[in-house]
């Protein structure tokens, strides 16, 4: 059996986020710091994705002052506490093959040093020495102590309520590497 390790190419990978509230939604991007996928006979068997929380960007707010203020709020303890927790990670624990190119990845998601098991479907394209993986992970932010304006914890929020679930859309490129090339 051939096992290949693929290292994530951060510059060719992206994660788009969407958070919703009663009056609309916000969206942006967040960078991947590092990670890898392990394939055996062309099938995903494991891996890790490490997110750089300090790289979060807001795309839908074009006013520079408002954008900076919102980015600061996302960086604060109300949301991601990026000074204390500069990374978040998804560690694959198990993989179920849905079809030849679709896999259900289940793993430990760690945000703000809080870990819960979750999963999502991912599509894999294998290009020999490179792979691309796309998928959407829906996260309940309250499980990770992100409670700001959550209806689970605050009453009478009206149209200031922020929904608990947010989406991360992954578009990842990874390249094969050998153990010798790591040195």
Q: Which characteristics define this entry?
A:
9 strands; mainly beta; Lipocalin; 183 residues; 1 helix
Task: Give the CATH class.
Answer: Mainly Beta
**Helix-and-strand structural type:** mainly beta
pLDDT < 50 stretches: 149-155, 157-161
Q: Determine the number of helices (DSSP H or I, runs of at least 4 residues).
A: 1
* CATH T-level topology: Lipocalin
| Shape, per Cα inertia axes | elongated
Counting DSSP E segments of at least 2 residues, the number of strands comes to 9
Helix content: under 10%
- Rg is 18 Å
Would you tell me the overall average pLDDT? 83
What is the CATH superfamily?
Lipid/polyisoprenoid-binding, YceI-like
Strand content: over 45%
What is the distance, rounded to the nearest whole angstrom, between the alpha carbons of the first and last residues?
Answer: 25 Å
Task: Give structural notes.
This protein has 183 residues and is mainly β. It has one domain: Lipocalin (Beta Barrel). Helix content is 7%, strand content 59%. It is built from 1 helix and 9 strands. The protein has one helix at residues 64-75, and strands at residues 3-8, 14-21, 24-40, 43-58, 87-97, 102-111, 114-126, 130-140, 162-177. Strands 1, 2, 3, 4, 5, 6, 7, 8 and 9 form a 9-stranded antiparallel sheet that branches. The chain starts with a strand and ends in a 6-residue tail after the last strand. Mean pLDDT is 83; it is low at 149-155 and 157-161.
């Amino acid at each position: 059996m051939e096992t290949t390790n693929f290292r994530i190419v951060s510059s060719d990978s992206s994660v788009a986020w969407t958070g919703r509230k009663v009056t609309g939604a916000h969206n942006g991007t967040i960078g991947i710091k590092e990670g890898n996928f392990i394939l055996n006979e062309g099938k995903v068997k494991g891996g890790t994705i490490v997110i750089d929380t300090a790289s979060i960007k807001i795309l839908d707010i074009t006013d520079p002052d408002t954008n900076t203020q919102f980015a600061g709020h996302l960086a604060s303890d109300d949301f991601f506490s990026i000074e204390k927790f500069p990374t978040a990670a998804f560690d694959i624990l198990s993989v179920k093959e849905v079809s030849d190119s679709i896999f259900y990845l289940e793993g430990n998601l760690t945000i703000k040093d809080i870990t819960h098991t979750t999963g999502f479907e991912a599509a894999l394209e294998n290009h020999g020495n490179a792979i691309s993986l796309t998928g959407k992970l829906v996260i309940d932010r309250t499980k990770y102590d992100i409670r700001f304006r959550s209806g689970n914890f605050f009453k009478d929020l009206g149209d200031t309520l922020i929904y608990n679930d947010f989406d991360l859309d992954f578009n990842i490129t990874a390249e094969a590497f050998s153990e010798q090339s790591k040195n």
